[in-house]
Design goal:
The protein has five helices and three strands. With 161 residues, the protein is mainly alpha-helical. It has two domains: 2-49, no CATH class; 53-160, no CATH class.
């Protein structure tokens, strides 16, 4: 089943990349997806049934909207800090406790934090993620955990867990 799921996802990715629905392109994409599935299928997810649930795709669309909005806000925040004459930064590394259980969910969260300007995921150890932050607002772990990961974590949990 995981080989079939990887084949379908690879073919969809191919068609989105090429944005061409001609017969030769579909044949080439199918061959490339088949080769990819045969080579990398054993490394694909163990349980592909969750990827067949349509509500996860709804939450993915919601997450992409939230992620885009947070990136726009963070871009303006970083631009403000760079252009401000006093350059108001207070950098630091904070430890954020995660409520996520699966490795894929933790990885997606870490990448989302890193792609948001002003933050970089440094390490994930167990149920904690270490994040370098351009401006540490608070010393309270609950407060900065919500500020950093709270905006993404609940949606990632609905998608990947």
């Amino acid at each position: 089943m995981k080989y079939v799921a990887l084949f379908i996802l690879s073919l969809i990715f191919w068609l989105l990349l090429t944005y061409n629905l001609t017969i030769p392109n579909i044949i080439v994409g199918s061959i490339a997806s088949l080769i990819t599935s045969l080579i990398f299928g054993k490394y694909f997810l163990k349980d592909v049934v969750p990827f067949l649930q349509p509500q996860r795709y709804f939450w993915l669309m919601v997450y992409l909207f939230i992620f885009t909005w947070e990136c726009i806000k963070a871009n303006f925040d970083v631009a403000y800090r760079v252009l401000h004459p006093a350059m108001p930064i207070k950098p630091g590394i904070v430890r954020v406790k995660l409520g996520l259980k699966t490795n894929i969910a933790k990885t997606i969260l870490a990448n989302s934090i890193t792609m948001t300007p002003g933050t970089i995921s440094v390490d994930i150890i167990g149920d904690e993620i270490y994040v370098h932050w351009i401006y540490v607002y608070s010393e309270n772990p609950e407060e900065y955990s919500h500020k950093i990961s709270g905006r993404f974590e609940k949606y990632i949990k609905k998608i990947f867990e």
